[in-house]
Amino acid sequence: MSSSSVDTDSTNSADDLTARQTYNLVTDTVTGPNIRLRDNLIQGAAIAAGLVLGAVIGAIVIPDPLVGLCVGGFLGALVSLFVSGGILLVFRAVKHAGGEHD
Q1: DSSP three-state, residue 2
Q2: How far is CA 78 from CA 44, 54, 98, in A?
Q3: Could you give the CA distance from residue 57 to residue 39 in angstroms, rounded to a whole number?
Q4: Does the predicted model carry a pTM greater than 0.85?
Q5: Residues with Cβ within 8 Å of residue 52, at least 6 apart in sequence
Q6: How far is CA 63 from the centre of its chain?
Q7: Structure confidence by residue, pLDDT tens digits, 74-84
Q8: What does 36-95 look like in DSSP terms, one character per residue?
Q9: How far apart are CA 48 and CA 88, in angstroms?
C-alpha cells in the first residue's frame, strides 16, 4: 500500500496542456499579449463604443464642442480600455480556474 495519494489521472495537469494552451495560460495569468481574436474584437468594440459615448458626453458637458469631443473621446476610450480589460481578466481567470485553457 502506497503512502502517497497523488492522483495521476488528472486531466488538468501541466503535462496535458498543448503549447497553445500553455501560452494562453501564461499570458492570461502572468503577462504577455493576448492573441485571441475574439477577445481582441470584443475589447476593440468596447473601446470604440466608449470613445463615441465619451465624445458625445464631452461635447454636451464642455462648452467648447471640439474640446469636448477630444477630451470626452479620449477619456471614454481610456475608461473603456480598463473596464473591458478588467472584465476579460476576470472572465479568463474563471475559465482557467475551471480547467478550460483554450
Answers
A1: coil
A2: 12, 10, 31
A3: 27
A4: no
A5: 73, 76
A6: 35
A7: 999 999 999 99
A8: -HHHHHHHHHHHHHHHHHHHHHHHHHSSSHHHHHHHHHHHHHHHHHHHHHHHHHHHHHHH
A9: 16
